[in-house]
Amino acid sequence: MINLPVLVLNQNYEALNICRVRRAVVLLYLGKAEMLENGSGFIHSASYDFPVPSVIRLACMIKRPWLERKLTRLEVFNRDQYTCQYCSKESHQLTLDHVIPRYLGGEHTWENVVSACIPCNRRKAGRTPEQAGMRLIRHPSPPRSKRFFYIPHYYLRIQSEWQKYLPPDIIYQSR
Q1: Residue 162 pLDDT more than 60?
Q2: What pTM was estimated for this model as a whole?
């Protein structure tokens, strides 16, 4: 129970991070945060009972710079919602595919990299989608959101109370 995820919000309700219940209870106990959403259950100590938080808000404003999202496997899979961009199969066993192969001059950019299941990636091989007779479901583009951290898509399915605190593009991208 102490390892459950807790959404941490800034003082202005902007999502900052995900921590564990143990850390969230310490922040609540020290008065550095307030609980917005109650999880399920309690943590019992010798003299106190602490409710398990699901969402907390920090008492002080934390300033963080806006950063460009890096092109990583995890970010591409998150952008494509863990869906093959050729056959629309949802899976966790995906590969990265360059729409225009690198040996044909394709670059390793957000606009040229998509998620593909293993059979589709093998079928396409080193060809363009037109040469392989395959169509892209959605043309790749850079992610719209400039958030600071990655929210695993399964957290949003399990922690439905988080969705009202997150921007719509995070909810859309992570389903």
Answers
A1: yes
A2: 0.59
